Amino acid sequence: xxxxxxxxxxxxxxxxxxxxxxxxxxxxxxxxxxxxxxxxxxxxxxxxxxxxxxxxxxxxxxxxxxxxxxxxxxxxxxxxxxxxxxxxxxxxxxxxxxxxxxxxxxxxxxxxxxxxxxxxxxxxxxxxxxxxxxxxxxxxxxxxxxxxxxxxxxxxxxxxxxxxxxxxxxxxxxxxxxxxxxxxxxxxxxxxxxxxxxxxxxxxxxxxxxxxxxxxxxxxxxxxxxxxxxxxxxxxxxxxxxxxxxxxxxxxxxxxxxxxxxxxxxxxxxxxxxxxxxxxxxxxxxxxxxxxxxxxxxxxxxxxxxxxxxxxxxxxxxxxxxxxxxxxxxxxxxxxxxxxxxxxxxxxxxxxxxxxxxxxxxxxxxxxxxxxxxxxxxxxxxxxxxxxxxxxxxxxxxxxxxxxxxxxxxxxxxxxxxxxxxxxxxxxxxxxxxxxxxxxxxxxxxxxxxxxxxxxxxxxxxxxxxxxxxxxxxxxxxxxxxxxxxxxxxxxxxxxxxxxxxxxxxxxxxxxxxxxxxxxxxxxxxxxxxxxxxxxxxxxxxxxxxxxxxxxxxxxxxxxxxxxxxxxxxxxxxxxxxxxxxxxxxxxxxxxxxxxxxxxxxxxxxxxxxx
Length: 611
Hints:
4-stranded antiparallel sheet; single chain; alpha/beta; 22 helices; ABC transporter transmembrane region fold; 10 strands; elongated
């Protein structure tokens, strides 16, 4: 089946649980059928309908497969006759009740163990899918997520994976337990009455066609619900992240309307899906009652008029017919769950099957040191259709600092993204020590680099654990030393639990300057040979900027640095300043040299009232 193929690689590690589940499902189906068959000898004793047979039947006297039922019936009558004569009718009844109880017990204990092993299978697959989804989310390039809604990704990892888990139980029932229960029951029904069973099975294809028609559009409606659920979560995520802006611009009503539009769509799609799901149970139940009515009508004639069946055989037959209806109804419900699970599997596998364009090449090498220079050679790059860099070339020697300045949109931050290989160049090359970074593993390349961004990206954890991202096995002394270099120890030491203090969601318990100094401390602890500073002070007030600037200067000593700056006061000591416009260098040189040129850089300085 399509569903099993999609998930096969997640099922294989847990195949032993699948085999055990199938084994106990087979036992469940077998004992489930025998539990109803065991009613017949009890009824024969109660109703006194067993034919007196004193001589044990011999199988050879019953020719053909279809006569096997007659043989079993005669053998049962012989067993009951001899037992009654030996022990009395009431003692035989007790024995028959014990047999009925035993078969029902074995059926239920088999059902328990099938579900026991299924739990390991379902939850193991759930764990592995979530782990792989999360890992894929981490390793896919940043460009992938600029085109996706964050809420939709969250919906796929949570709701869609849960849908897969729920439907996995359904698929195993659909494949093993219920079909086998039906098969075993049908075999016994044929042995009781071939004619009645053939008559009944004329109506089963009609029921199947009706149930199939009901569930035909379920996958389509399920996908609509899941897609809209992703939109709904995205709006919620954006609202929580942008509450200050929403309130500051009095946009509560606008966002409330957007949210209501999404929930209204979700309401409509969910209702359409629920109506089809809810139609499954009454449809299958009504069709089942229809089959029972046909059995009563035709079978009653065989008992009362034609005398072709005894009352105990007919009652047992009715019980077996009911034993078919229950799994048939379960299969009907399971088919709907499978369709919903298919839609979820498609959404989950869309992420899992996405190939990263930034994968390491097969012959990529590990680079453990930085020795000479970083160079961008005729680099061109574009986002979608917009060309951001045009045959851009520049280099920075080891131990030197390069500052990139210019108006917003000139391509400064793009260079940081390309050097760290968050994106790949469209043409040209970037080299470290003369080696193309595409020929170096991303891990080893980024290990040579420290990154401090304009937005201080911190996590809802302690100061210590945020800093440890720079070096996982660092001691507390190393952490404190890094904090001192970053001018952060002065406030961290006064926090309630010092470096063990939790800083809240995105570090929101701290000020902007404090958050930025923690980001710098993290980079200091990593102690990389190359430092990339992407507008690290542009969002700060003057006092915080001074503290952060001092921290940056401490960190950049004897280190190769690429500094992307908005505030020109922060880069006047750079070894080389490149002034950018529309993806090209229009001026470059030291601060004093550029001022003397009286060009673009001088104008930028004047606009910031800096002499």
